[in-house]
Automatic annotation (TrEMBL):
Keywords, comma-separated and alphabetical: Transferase
Organism the protein comes from: Compostibacillus humi
InterPro entries, A to Z: CoA-transferase_III_domain (IPR050483), CoA-Trfase_fam_III (IPR003673), CoA-Trfase_III_dom3_sf (IPR044855), CoA-Trfase_III_dom_1_sf (IPR023606)
SUPFAM superfamilies: CoA-transferase family III (CaiB/BaiF)
Name the record gives this protein: CoA transferase
UniProt GO molecular function: CoA-transferase activity
């Protein structure tokens, strides 16, 4: 069986995290992704440490199932190769700063002239409008600019960013969804279109609850750490050894929690009777709970909490996640053959399809490893490829 996007050809001119994450999604769904890279340097993510047998782990994570061709885009002959690829492509993806694609000759209007049915996806930092559209931006910068960093962490602990690339990979998800939707629309109408998304728009969407909260109350959201502004008790608690996380979102769960910790009288305490009461008296309730949790180990508490129907977990370190039987049972890590890394395992996309299963068929490509093959497929002969390489147009 093949993936649902089998037969879809994608020309990928992206680098770093956001764009390659988007095209990774398409590749895992079965599309053929031709990754265009710069001579000698390639994708910046190749050098994002730590390195594993010479490759950056960021690069390894988000570039499987792709083919790599090295083209010098500063040369007219290089641009013409891209145009030839676009002629028979279904999708083109770029994540340049605003205006750069046009200046290079790869803007939507130009490529639409070459292939009218093309789906053109632009993934940028700030979007295609507004005074900030020209600004460069990385995930952390946009976390700061969209308010995520302003509500992350604790009031006592200063500023903190989310430790994963939530905006890079979040915008990649929206971009991929847009591309798939545009492909469906083209199937129905025959028409291509431009798809746009950005880290900024993704950040604003992620903060939607907090934006609405401010509009409703006029109060700036507070940094809650692991706590939740709308519920209590909801957060992390110390035990005799490791910290645990619990989530109590209604009165029924609070009743169950009180039963587990042997404090049924708390349900009759006017400070804790309803969720609004508990939110108002969060600090004292958290202190009382932690006094109880410190009496036993995390493992024992989780057994009791789970038996009592309480949403809970040990706060696991990454090493513990790798050893968790749940990870193995979900088969989230897939073994991928690699020339230099003996036991390379990569996280699969977190979606499964019964009739068109997704696969990781190909390890992340070496720089330019598919250049000659792709050019042969365009009809170029060995002598032509050799001359292009001599002139610095390609790197085979």
């Amino acid at each position: 069986m093949s993936g649902p996007l089998e037969g879809v050809k994608v020309v990928d001119i992206t680098t770093n995290i956001s764009g390659p994450s988007l095209t990774m999604i398409l590749a895992d769904l079965g599309a053929e992704v031709i990754k265009i890279e710069r001579p000698n340097i390639g994708d910046d993510a190749r050098r994002m440490g730590p390195l594993w047998e010479g490759d950056g782990v960021y690069y390894l994570h988000i570039n499987r199932n792709k083919r790599s061709i090295v083209i010098n885009l500063k040369e007219e002959e290089g641009k013409n190769i891209v145009y030839r690829l676009v002629e028979n492509a279904d999708v083109f993806v770029e994540n340049f700063r605003y205006g750069k694609a046009d200046s290079l000759g790869f803007g939507y209007e130009k490529l639409k002239e070459i292939n009218e049915s093309l789906i053109y996806c632009s993934l940028s930092a700030y979007g295609q409008s507004g005074e900030k559209r020209h600004k460069p931006g990385y995930d952390a910068i946009l976390q700061a600019d969209t308010g995520i960093m302003g509500i992350n962490g604790t009031e006592e602990g200063g500023v903190a960013r989310a430790a994963v690339s939530i905006l890079d990979q979040g915008s990649a998800m929206w971009g991929a969804l847009g591309v798939v939707s545009a492909l469906y629309h083209r199937k129905e109408t025959g028409k291509g279109q431009k798809v746009e998304t950005s880290l900024y728009e993704t950040g604003v969407f992620w903060t939607g609850y907090h934006l609405l909260s401010y509009m409703a109350t006029g109060e700036e959201p507070k940094k809650m750490g692991s706590n939740h502004a709308a519920f209590a008790p909801y957060g992390d608690f110390a035990t005799k050894d490791d910290p645990i996380m619990i989530g109590i979102s209604n009165d029924s769960l609070f009743q169950k929690l009180c039963n587990v910790v042997g404090k049924e009288e708390w349900t009759r305490d006017p400070r804790f009777r309803t969720n609004p009461d508990r939110v108002k008296n969060r600090k004292v309730l958290n202190e009382l709970l932690e006094d109880e949790f410190r009496k036993d180990t995390a493992k024992n508490w989780i057994e009791k909490l789970e038996a009592g129907g309480i949403p809970s977990s040990v706060i696991q370190r990454i090493s513990q996640v790798l050893d968790d039987p749940q990870l193995e049972s979900t088969e989230m890590l897939v073994s991928v053959p690699h020339d230099n890394i003996k036991e390379l395992k990569l996280p699969r996309l977190p979606v499964q399809m019964s009739d068109t299963p997704l696969e990781i068929k190909k390890s992340p490509p070496k720089l330019g490893e598919d250049t000659a093959d792709i050019l042969h497929e365009l009809g170029l002969k060995e002598e032509e490829i050799r001359k292009l390489e001599e002139r610095g147009v390609i790197q085979a």
